């Protein structure tokens, strides 16, 4: 959907294909948590030269779609692929007639918060102590303990 290099493609992962857990775990360190939303979601992969280098997961929620997971292989980060994935998710949401696109991240995910807001997402809620209550291991990013879940959304009207 989004304009990409000739050898790059974003497509829905087929049911018989291997789930890219290595990428999904970059954004969510718990296989247990990932497996709670995967059965109800659509998984989109970004391939470059037939190699999966990025992924995002969309979950339908009433009049909205939520990006439950979005990740880019570290070797390809900093090249605008996260922005391309967000734009692709936005186009798919609009094509499906949903009114809102939602995403959430941790309080310590500074680069992600920057990217999401630059792409038109606005902070709508903070769930205090979400990560300390739902994840058995402590999470640290950028030298900051990840405790709170920050919810953002973008209106598609």
Task: Summarize this entry quickly.
The chain is 27% helix and 36% strand. It contains five helices and nine strands. The strands form two sheets. A seven-stranded mixed beta sheet has the order 1-2-3-4-5-9-6, sandwiched between helices. Strands 7-8 form a two-stranded antiparallel sheet.
Task: Describe the SSE topology.
Elements: E1 8-12, H1 21-27, H2 31-37, E2 41-48, E3 51-61, E4 64-72, H3 81-95, E5 100-106, H4 110-118, E6 122-127, H5 130-134, E7 140-141, E8 144-145, E9 149-155
Parallel strand pairs: 4-5
Antiparallel strand pairs: 1-2, 2-3, 3-4, 5-9, 6-9, 7-8
Question: Would you mind describing this structure in some detail?
Answer:
There is one protein chain. The protein has 157 residues and is an alpha+beta fold. The protein has one domain: Gcn5-related N-acetyltransferase (GNAT) (Aminopeptidase), CATH 3.40.630. 27% of the residues lie in helices and 36% in strands. It has five helices and nine strands, in the order E-H-H-E-E-E-H-E-H-E-H-E-E-E. The strands form two sheets. Strands 1-2-3-4-5-9-6 form a seven-stranded mixed beta sheet, with helices on both faces. The protein has a two-stranded antiparallel sheet with strand order 7-8. The longest helix has 15 residues, at 81-95. The model has no long low-confidence stretch (mean pLDDT 94).
